[in-house]
């Protein structure tokens, strides 16, 4: 059976996410719709979180929860809310047999042992920015399970490696709310239309500019960075590049994806393995950036080629325009 070409499948800006998903699925004759439904479940959870975030200042769900997550970080109330909402949406959707969340030590078994997929996620990254109204985001990574259908998921389903992801993306809760994802055939962005309650295709086939004039790094840690990073930052200043760092990974990543630029979170004395988590921050964003023509490195090789060993392991990350990432590693 012939598969439709990307051109035949190209849909105009303005179609709904649901229409886009169904059209994309028709390119894969053997697709049986589970991944499509899973993407819809994620979009639904994103709509719900969007609603919670938009009223955070009005109801008592902003601020700290007084608890710590598995990372030892102070949890915000919305971290908990987002985690619960995504777990519930994925459980009810039925396509996911297990979830790995930044907020939980171990995998969460959904009871859907017939589900073909597992999801690793950071339900709400950058949540400390909620109280000051800075953009925050959800990051997700999807794998087909390797354990037998109808049995329980295991760690093996989550430690397959970045190149085994079947889809990945993020939801950016910013001046508008956007869902950006890829299933391995390019990157597309959907903007949430509140009046319709729908994500609408707004950014077709997003391509990462080969270079840009923005670098995103916390220069407060400068003296703790490796020499090659210090050299690179020095070069950025000599070239009069623009320093843009909002302390929220998804916001910094998305701006650099569209305009060209690089985000750096190197290893530091405090975080010798880097701060960002491989499975549900680095891998999914590396999948997106490679699908858009950019690059993601840990300073030694591609992020997607790192062999994972534990759920919450961290990695240094240099991600964005390919020429800028290449320049860091050579700096
Ligand atoms: P720092 C938020 O905690 C986060 O994981 C990313 O969203 C953000 O880019 C980074 O950490 C900020 O870390 O050390 O610069 O405050």
Would you kindly provide a written description of the structure presented here, covering whatever features stand out?
- The chain is α+β, with helices and mostly antiparallel strands.
- It has 2 domains: 17-203, Fructose-1,6-Bisphosphatase, Chain A, domain 1 (2-Layer Sandwich); 214-330, D-Maltodextrin-Binding Protein, domain 2 (3-Layer(aba) Sandwich), CATH 3.40.190.
- It has helices at residues 6-9, 17-25, 34-54, 77-93, 155-158, 227-238, 249-259, 278-291, 322-330, and strands at residues 64-68, 74-76, 96-101, 108-109, 117-125, 136-144, 167-173, 177-182, 188-193, 198-203, 214-216, 242-243, 262-265, 295-297, 317-320.
- An 8-stranded mixed beta sheet has the order 4-3-5-6-7-8-9-10, with helices on both faces. Strands 12-11-13-15-14 form a 5-stranded mixed beta sheet, sandwiched between helices.
- Helix 3 packs antiparallel against helix 4 (77-93).
- The mean pLDDT is 92.
- 6-O-phosphono-alpha-D-fructofuranose binds at residues 125-126, 218, 247-249, 252, 275.
